[in-house]
From TrEMBL:
Phylogenetic classification of the source organism: Bacteria, Bacillati, Cyanobacteriota, Cyanophyceae, Acaryochloridales
Protein name as catalogued: MBL fold metallo-hydrolase
Domain of life: Bacteria
InterPro entries: RibonucZ/Hydroxyglut_hydro
Matching SUPFAM superfamilies: Metallo-hydrolase/oxidoreductase
């Protein structure tokens, strides 16, 4: 398994000899509701679109997961597996091979299996997706939930090798955490006993502007989470990759075989 962190929630996963582009934001700024005064993020280091993408995986329909300018720039013949909300978006853009996965559903093709689980709540009625991605040959597996809302349903998987999820809390005044790390990340580590965990959502080479950035409160850091792991006698290791740099996840022989 090889991973490349592309800032924010964006990752390139290389698994089962396939390149999977996860929640990509690669082109232009990230803006919510066409209101840059409210929130705007820009890459400080350009992130080129990777070559030879085999699958696009979208956990949510929000712009920081299904970024419209990036999705418009990608080849619309690339297969997409997505939450129903994100699937609707890419179908409207003209993507020709779109699979919507509801919670509990599975997609399997070309040696890769994607399982959908309940993920982050978006408003009172919508719950987006978390994913478990598995190499069907080696059985190497990865769990991804970008806001730290982990459903107990994922315990049915029993074990994954790698988790990608937030390790710190981001909160808004009066509303509380909308990205949960800390104890929430520790819970899913205890459930799935991964060999490695990597932080997502609040990272990368990014410049932020707007009112939202000024009122966000960050609680904790990677070292705090490392202490949580140690205090809980968890053997899971934290990996902290350099953004934009491809690296091999050093899975043990038993985990990767």
């Amino acid at each position: 398994m090889h991973l490349t962190y592309l800032d924010s929630n964006s990752w390139l996963i290389e698994l089962a000899s396939k390149k999977i582009l996860l929640d990509p934001w690669l082109v232009g700024p990230l803006v919510f509701g066409n209101q840059p005064w409210f929130f705007k993020a820009e890459h400080t280091t350009p992130r080129p679109i990777p070559d030879d993408i085999d699958l696009i995986l979208l956990s949510q329909g929000l712009p920081d997961h299904a970024h419209p300018p990036t999705l418009k720039a990608l080849d619309h013949d690339i297969p997409v597996v997505a939450s129903p909300n994100a699937a609707k978006l890419v179908k409207e853009m003209g993507y020709r091979q779109v699979t919507a996965l509801d919670h509990g559903e599975t997609f399997s093709e070309n040696g890769v299996k994607v399982q959908a689980f309940p993920g982050s709540p978006i408003g009172p009625l919508l719950v987006e997706n978390a994913f478990v991605v598995t190499d069907l040959t080696s059985q190497a597996s990865l769990y991804y939930e970008p806001h730290g809302f982990h459903s107990e349903a994922v315990q049915a998987v029993k074990h994954v090798d790698v988790i990608i999820t937030p390790l710190i809390n981001l909160s808004l005044p009066l509303l509380g955490p909308f990205i949960k790390g800390g104890e929430s990340a520790l819970d899913v580590v205890k459930w799935l006993q991964p060999e490695f965990i990597l932080s997502t959502a609040a990272g990368g080479d990014i410049k932020y502007e707007g009112i939202l950035d000024k009122i966000l409160k960050m609680d904790g850091d990677v070292e705090d989470f490392r202490k949580l792991l140690a205090d809980s006698d968890c053997e899971t290791q934290i990996l902290d990759p350099e953004p934009g740099q491809r690296f091999e996840v050093p899975l043990t022989v038993s985990a990767a075989a």
